[in-house]
Amino acid sequence: MMHMKYQCPTCQRVLYSRRLKHCGFCGAPIPDGLRFTPEETAAIDQQMSELEKQHKQRERDIEEEEAARRKAIRPHL
Q: What is the pTM of this model?
């Protein structure tokens, strides 16, 4: 798999966010072809939302398991 290196056409620095309209280093406008499309942005946002939900569920599961373990160790409390 070949990875494209996304660089600012003005300062040649790596674009740290393809969501921005301007380079975070030099402030030059970033051409549309280098930025995420609205559809790509929406898909990324959806993926991040799902990952966050999964993470929160894992945290809840761990907390419940820990509470059950503590209760099993000290049933009289």
A: 0.67
